[in-house]
Write a structure and sequence with these properties.
The structure is a single chain. By secondary structure, the chain is α/β, with parallel strands linked by helices. 31% of the residues lie in helices and 25% in strands. It is built from 8 helices and 15 strands. Strands 1-2-5-3-6-7 form a 6-stranded mixed beta sheet, with helices on both faces. A 6-stranded mixed beta sheet has the order 10-9-8-13-11-12. The protein starts with 10 loop residues before the first helix and ends with a strand.
């Protein structure tokens, strides 16, 4: 293992300290070292937007703190949920009197700890409502959608809910549009090679040379199928064939395309894959209204990519178009 670290057990602490030092124009510490917030939060009259999750996915989650985005984030260890206290402190850091929308991915630890945090917040008189992203089509059949994991679509959930909150939306309205976003998007990942958790010092799973895994999760969760590595055009078709019929997306739909690398795939390759996705969408008469290509939700140094499509209506188009300023997403 060759990495720029000091002590493997201090990786999260050290990365957070570096992140704060680098982005002081946006980020502010709180009394809890495992909670960061937007330096202008809480914003009077605005519903607070909170999320959280395990580390190892930068720029998710702390990279989406910012203007018209997330107000506060609870930080967990590598691939582990934040504590209930961290979620509670993030809720408190974002609360301005209009309630808090806690928007996170469908993982057992996060669900349990958010539930406990909400109980503690209620005792303090803070109203918190939640939306759980479950956009990863590979993690459970469509008939068991409630079991599906959160995927790269969480970023679009934060983007759109953050925009609604900044417009002055009430808590119910922010929750409704966040849920609509989740209901209208589907995601899938493809893994090329595994990642290494610093504390373990070796890859946490295997993908043989010359193979790829369709449907892999952000933590190396088992996918749908392992097959020989294919050309980019074929991979694009495989990914779209899994997610288009699942919603379904139809001819004439306008969509947001988000293609995120998993940490070790060059952006150059992501653009090759995006081009093939774009062409196939065009062949199907599905319009890529807005596209994001880059490293938005990674998995340490895993090789591969995660694709999300979001079907748009007029409200979602307006909100996704609103300016945003965060480390992970800047839009003017």
């Amino acid at each position: 293992m060759k990495k720029f670290i000091n002590n493997p057990d201090d990786v999260v602490k050290d990365q957070v300290e570096g992140f704060i030092k680098c982005h002081q124009e946006i980020i502010e510490k709180t009394a809890n070292p495992r909670v960061l917030k937007y330096k202008k939060s809480p914003i009077l009259g605005k519903v607070g937007i909170v999320t959280g999750g395990g580390s190892g996915h930068l720029p998710a989650f702390i990279g989406y703190i910012g203007e018209n985005m997330v107000d506060a984030v609870a930080i967990g260890e590598i691939f582990s949920s934040p504590t209930p206290q961290a979620f509670l402190d993030a809720i408190i850091a974002s609360e301005s009197g209009k309630g808090v929308a806690c928007l996170f991915g469908n993982y057992a630890g996060d669900k349990m700890n958010v539930k406990l945090a909400i109980k503690m917040a209620k005792a303090k008189g803070i109203e918190v409502r939640t939306v759980v992203a479950n956009d990863d089509v590979s993690s459970a059949p469509k008939e068991e959608k409630e079991r599906r994991r959160g995927g790269g679509g969480e970023i679009l959930m934060w983007k759109i809910a953050g925009a609604k909150s900044s417009e002055g939306g009430q808590l119910d309205e922010v929750i409704d549009v966040a849920q609509k976003t989740v209901d209208n998007m589907r995601s899938i990942g493809v893994g090329l090679f595994p990642c290494t958790i610093p504390a373990f010092g070796k890859p946490n799973f295997e993908i043989e040379e010359g193979k790829m895994e369709i449907g892999i999760g952000h933590h190396g969760e088992k996918g749908l199928e392992i097959m020989d590595l294919k050309p980019s055009k074929v991979i694009a078709n495989i990914m779209l064939d899994k997610i288009i019929p699942d919603l379904p997306f139809y001819e004439g739909d306008e969509v947001v395309v988000m293609l995120s690398g998993l940490g070790a795939t060059p952006v150059e390759e992501l653009y090759i894959l995006y081009s093939d996705i774009y062409n196939e969408l065009k062949n199907k008469n599905i319009v890529a209204y807005k596209s994001y290509v880059g490293n938005f939700y990674t998995s340490l140094d895993m090789g591969g990519a995660f694709l999300t499509l979001l079907k748009l209506d007029e409200e979602l188009k307006r909100l996704v178009d609103l300016n945003a300023y965060s480390v992970g997403l800047k839009q003017f």
